[in-house]
Amino acid sequence: MANILGIGNCVLDTILDTDHYPREDEEMRAQGRTFSVGGNVANSLYVLNQLGHASTLVTATGGDHEAKQLKQGLEARSINTDHIQRFLQGATPTSYVIRNRETGSRTITHFRDLPEVSFDFFAKIEIENWDWLHFEGRNLSHLPGMLNIARTFLDQQPISLEVEKPREGIETVFELANVIIFSHHYARAKGYQDGEALLSALAPSLTAQHLICTWGTKGAWFKSAGQQTVHHQPAKEIDQVIDTLGAGDTFNAGLIDALLQGHALAESVKAASDLASHKCQKQGLDNLLAPIEKPKPLANQRSISQAKVTVVPAPKLGHSVLLISDGSQVKAYENNCPHQNVPLNEAYKVDVNPFEKTMKCSVHDAFFKIENGECVEGPCLNDALQPVAIRVEDNGDIYLAD
Prior knowledge:
By secondary structure, the protein is α/β, with parallel strands linked by helices. It has helices spanning about 40-50, 65-75, 120-125, 145-155, 185-190, 195-200, 245-260, 265-280, and strands at about 5, 10-20, 30-40, 55-60, 80-85, 90-100, 105-115, 130-135, 160-165, 180, 210-215, 220-225, 230-235, 300, 310, 320-325, 330-335, 350-355, 360, 365-370, 375, 390, 395-400. The longest helix has 16 residues, at about 265-280.
C-alpha cells in the first residue's frame, strides 16, 4: 500500500440521467438524479483507495453547505481531508452533468467562484510523508511553486501531472514532473490529430519523463523516460458503454497503481486502459473492481408474438415493459397508460386487435397503435406510450439498450 497525495479541484456533482442528450430549447424529464463528489483528482484518489492505497486530497472549498457535503462525501470514500483549504468568501465549486443513457456519454457544465489552493497553504504540508504526488494541471498562479517545492524536497517519490486542457503557462512546468498524462482535448487544442503526433513533438525536450496521451476509444499513446519511440495501446473492446463519467480519472489511478507496483510503462498503460474500459461498463465509481454482471435478457424474440403482448419486468425503468412483434421488428413500450398512469394490464390482459394493429388498455379502453404507441381511440387520444430502447442479440435475446 502506498500513501498518495492528490492536489487539484474538487466539486459537488449534480448528475442527471436522461434517455438522450437534450436538443436546444427542449424540455425533458430526467430519469434519475445523483449528488456526488467530483473532480479529476478526487475521483482518481477514490479509485486508488479501492486498489489498496491510502489517499489524501489537497483542495479548496467555501464555507457553505456544499462544502460540508463535499467533506462528508470525501470521508465516505475514505479520502483524508486534513489538508483542505477553506475560504469564507466564494462558493464551493459545482458541476452539472447530463449522463446520456442512450450512449453512455457525459456532458458537463462547471461553475466556480472560489480561489484555488494557495502556494503558502501547500508549502506547510510535509510532503515527504507521501509516496506519490499527483497534480492536476491547473491553478497556474501557484502550481509552478508547488512543483518546485516537490522537486526540491522529494528524493524518490514520483510526481505525476494531469494535463487535461490547454492553460496559459502549463508547458513551463512539464519538466518538473516525472509522469505527464495528456488528454486528447489538450492535444487537439494544440493542433495534433492523435497522441502519437503530440508525444513525438514533446519527446526531444522531455527526455526524462514518462509521457502518456489518452484518446478514449482510440486507446492511448505513450513514451518511456529515456526513450524517444512512441508506442500505442489500443482500447479494450467492450460490449456496451454504460457510463464514461470518470473513465479518464480511472485510467490515471490505474496507471499510478501499476507504476507503484514496479511495472514498466507499457504494462502500466495497458493495465490503466483495461481498468478504464471496465469502468465504462459500470455506473459510477462505487465497487469499481467488482466483476461486470451481464444483464439478464427481457425475453427472447422467438417468444414474442404479433397476436399478444408480453409483459416483462424492468426494475431499472420503474415500469414493466410491453413487448409485441410488428412484422420483423419487436416493439417495446413502458407499461404505463398516459391516461391515469396505470399499467395497461391493471384490470386484465392487454387485448390485441391484429386487424387494426392496436393494443387496448384494460382500465379505460384506450387503444394504442402497435407501430408507434400512439393512442388512436379513448380518453388519452393523440397521446402515446413511452417507447423503450432495446437491442436484440444474434441469438434473439432482447435487452434494454442502456
